[in-house]
Structure formats: C-alpha cells, structure tokens
Amino acid sequence: MGDPITEYTTRLQQQEREIRSLSAEIESLKNPQNLSPSPRLDELRDENTKLKYRLNILKRGLQEERTTHCGKSMMNINLRLQEIFGEAIRASCPELDNPPLSVAPNQQAKFGDYQCNSAMAMAQMLKARGMKINPREIAEKIIQNLPDNELIQKTEIAGPGFINIHLKRTIVSKLLSNLLINGVQPPPLPSRKRVVVDFSSPNIAKEMHVGHLRSTIIGESMCRLFEFLGYDVVRLNHVGDWGTQFGMLIAHLQDKFPDYQTSSPPIGDLQAFYKESKKRFDEEEDFKKRAYQCVVRLQSKEPDFIKAWNLICDVSRREFQKVYDCLDIQIVERGESFYQDMMTKVVKEFEDKGLVELDEGRKIVFAPGQSIPLTVVKSDGGYTYDTSDLAALHHRLFTEKADIIIYVTDSGQATHFQVVFAAAQLIGWYNPQVTRVEHAGFGVVLGEDKKKFKTRSGDTVRLMDLLEEGLKRAMDKLKEKERDKVLTPEELTKAQRSVAFGCIKYADLSHNRINDYVFSFDKMLDDRGNTAAYLLYAFTRIRSIARLANIDEATLRKAAETSEVLLDHEKEWKLGKCILRFPEILQKILDDLLLHTLCDYLYELATTFTEFYDSCYCVEKDRQTGEVVKINMWRMLLCEATASIMAKCFDILGINPVGRM
C-alpha cells in the first residue's frame, strides 16, 4: 500500500484539474452570444458543486492525515509553511510569474513563530509593471487566500507588510511525540540520489598536515549528512600516488635498500626519505637521469618498479590510517594512478570534438567564460593534473553514475575546478541543471599569531603530532576537573578521546569553512561558549536527568506513547519549536554545504534547553530529605527529545559523546 499522504495529494490534484476544466466550460456556456437557457449549463454547475464538495472532504482528509499520521519522518515546518504560503501568494497575484516566497523563523517570540516577508517584494514587482499597491494590502490578500492547513493558529500583519505566523500548539506537541516514538528520522527523500564526495586527498610520501585535517573533517561530515538524509554516498580519497616524484623515490629506494624486493624496507620516516631523494634529485645529475628513467619504467608497469611503488605507497597508507582511525573516518582510496589508463581516451574525446588547440607543443582546452585554459598534454607528451581531474570527473559521471559530486579542497584550487567543470560542460558530459558538481572550498588554518599554522622551526605541523597533543591536553583538562576521581580508567580514556577529537573537529566545523580560522587548543577546550567541550558536558548532563530520577528508556518510551507533551510555559514552547527546526537546518546545509549552521543550531539548542531547565522543574525533590516527590513527565520527554536531536547533530559532525564525563 502506498503512502496515504501521496495518494490524497494525487487525488486532490486530479479533482482540482477537473474543477478548472468544468469552470472553463461553464464560462464558455455563459457566453452572451448563447442567450437561450442551456440544460448542459445547469448539469455542469451541479457536477461542479459536487466536485467542490468532494474536494473539500479530500482536503480535510489530507490535513487530518498530515496531523495525526505524520509518518516516521520529521516534518520540515518551514518547507510546509512555504507550500501553504506559496499557494496563497499564487492565488493573490496570479499575474506575477514566479512571485517571491520568503518564510523564516521569527527572531522575536512576541511577533509569532515564523514570518512571511513576501508582500514587500511583490509590491516592488507590481510597481515595476506600473501597478502601485500597498504591501499591507497584498499581505491581506495573501492571508485571505491561505488554504485550510494543519499548522497555522493565526496570522497578523505587522509594519509595512510582514505576516507574523503563530503555530498551533497541538501540532507542535504531536510532532514532538512523533519524534520521541519514532526517533530522529530524516524528512522523506523524493528520490535516492548517488553522491560522490572527494575529500582528504593527501600525497604519498608526504606527511598529512593541518590542510588535510580541514578537508578530512569537512568531507566526512558532509558524507554523514548525505547518508543520514538517505543518499547513496561514495567517499573517495584522491591521493597523490603518481607522477615524476616517484622516479626519484624509487631510485633512492634502490640505492638505500637494494634488497627491497625480498624484505620490506624499514622506512620509518617517509618525510625524511622524501627530502633525501629530493636533495639528490636537485644536486646529482646522474641520479636525476636515473630518476627520469625510473618514471618511464614505472609508467610502463615493469614488475620491479610497480613493487617499489607499492612499497612506498603502503608505508604512507599505514601513516594515513592512524589519522583516520583517530578521527573515525571511513574512506575509499582511489588515487591519481587509478585514472592513468583513462586519460588517453579523455584527450581523444576532446580532440575528436575539435576542442583541443596547440600552444608551443602543449595541447590545451579553452572553456567558455574562463580566462585560463586546461593543459591536457604537456609539450613532452605527459599528462597533467588537469587531465587526471577530467578523467576522474568522467569516471564519476559515467561509471559511478553520480547525481551529485563534491570536491572538498582548499579555496586556492577554486579556479582550477571552475575550469575543469566548465570544460566538462562544454564537451556535454553533464548539465548543471540536472547534475550538481561543486567545489566546496575552505580557508587556511592559522596559528594564534594569525599567520599560517607552523611549528616553531617553521615546518608544517604533522597531523599525528597535533592529535597526540590534543589527547594530552584533554586529559589535563579532565584531571583539572577531577574527573579521574569519579570515572573508571576505561570511562576516563573514552572521555579523553571524545573531548580531544571532538574539540578539534568542532573548532573546524563551527567556523564558516570559506574563512581562515585560528587554531587554539585553549579556546577549543574551554567549556564555556560555543565549543565541543561545553556541548559534550551539556549533553551528558541532559542524559543524566532521567538516570538520576531512576527513569529508564522503557518508561520514557511508554510516556511518549501515552502522554501529551505540554507546552504551556513559554520556555517549553521555545524549546519545542527549537527541537523541530532540525529538518530545516539540514535542508539549508544541503543547499549551501556550510556545516557551521549545524554547530550554531546545536549551540542554540543547548542554550535554549538551559533556559528551559532553569525555569521549569523536571524533577521536584523534598528540600529536607532530597527525595523525589514529583516527576513532570512531559518535561522529561522534552529532555529526551533535546538529547535525541543533539546526539544526531554530534553524529553528523563526527563527534562521539560519552555517557559519563
């Protein structure tokens, strides 16, 4: 059996079409040229009245279905209000094509819960057409045309034409009960799309540094968001595992560990190994020639050279995995080497379509609207990053069959990707109206001196050193708060990892990724303000309220199924609405890929909960004995709903909260 809401909506649309058709026929029969009474006109009027009656029953049924059987999914209240106001706006001004639709949460509670600001923009559009209408009049017409709905209690017009919207408390209460019974479920997805996220992307034989930290954390969080919303997600690690640098690395490996074929060379510090080989490459002419020969033999896939290449890659992979294990990252490696055999075909396709130009021996492609070309073949016949990125994009579009492709790299690569995407559109690989291909760029990590984050000696900060420093500082913080005296050793270690890695991730994600941000352990470990330390402590406290009142999960579940969530106190109402904004927050991030919005929401939810908890007793105790005398179960349910949403936010951000801290 299908979804009842979808069935109702389909039937509703069909009946509305029939009414429009009959109304048009009635109008034609009213034509003054046809003055004689028509039995057909009376018949049609009769049929039209019956249809309108049935239509109203269907509308009421649909409203009832939405209210009582919200399904397991959470309702996006903002989106539903946009549907309601969209219908009213179109009915109010049918002469406007694409009238503006603006609905947002109200910033001040005294003005209502949401606000529609479309009337002013509509007045401007009508003025441009020579029709001067006061925005308040337009707002009046919008309100008159609002269809019957399950959400709106009342509306008011304020100022020049703002429409303040007050929600029905009963529907908010029902939506909260639905959340408690079914858990945090994503809004329904129209179709399950395939998403490829390209992130992390370190280079073989080089250490991962803070730049990779940003790409890794942001990319992982984006993947978790898409997965929660029901998309089919492919996480790709486009590692730099091919190119001329491998010639010098292999030549150096052969000199330093001649028996590398039979026993794995003890390359403890690959970074030092890389620096040694680079020094020889720059200073020794014979070594340089041999390095170039090694590149040719590697590209010809000679077994000895492939083995040497694999050994070097494996040493790096083990180092990368240590970082991924700490940060709980799931990713599939698909480096530049994977696309080597595809590049020739890609270049040929551009040539066959007459899109390649010769420039001093290079083969280049100019994409429309772009000031710089792509170099697809160098003058020595070799391929470039441009070629491998085109081959990777082709594979993701045609083999992976991705509907959405996101590249998470630093903002310095924005122009490069802009040109690659433009070239792919030029050759007809994808239509941006159908397939979303996007570069999600990010700023650099700065030290507390506001300069690029470096060690004291001026070297790039190794990522593992940074994570180990985080662990040490987190333990110091926990001991300073004497948590080592109340937690078991196992609980203390869990709390240490949760705080250390949670704080590093949150410090990054809570900043707008487009901007640079200052890395400061002191700020990120501060348990005041918008930090992971504060939020993790807040979450643990909320979870402990039911535990300290001896209320188990089964009792809470039964209460959710049988008790109404009362929202009479202003702080209960404020918290209830804040909890239910979760789906609209996710929708905004889906549109702009800016994850700091989720961090801002999480902090707002935690502070709104604190206001509620300070004003509304959840558990009432005897002042003398400390014994529990009354449990306000509806408030315990609000605690549970808050904790459920916070837990899902942490999950999307890749942060692991703990039961005790």
Low-pLDDT sequence parts: none
Separate helix tally: 23
- Give the percentage of residues in beta strands: 5-15%
Mean pLDDT: 91
Describe the overall structure.
The protein is 55% helix and 9% strand. By secondary structure, the protein is of the alpha/beta class. The chain has five domains: 4-68; 77-167, Gyrase A, domain 2 (2-Layer Sandwich); 194-240 and 336-439, HUPs (Rossmann fold, 3-Layer(aba) Sandwich); 245-331, no CATH class; 466-653, Isoleucyl-tRNA Synthetase, Domain 1, CATH 1.10.730.10. Helix 7 links the parallel strand 5 and strand 6. Helix 6 (169-182) crosses helix 23 (633-653). The radius of gyration is 31 Å and the shape is globular. Keywords: Aminoacyl-tRNA synthetase, ATP-binding, Coiled coil, Cytoplasm, Ligase, Nucleotide-binding, Protein biosynthesis. Residues 79-167 form the Arginyl tRNA synthetase N-terminal domain. Belongs to the class-I aminoacyl-tRNA synthetase family.
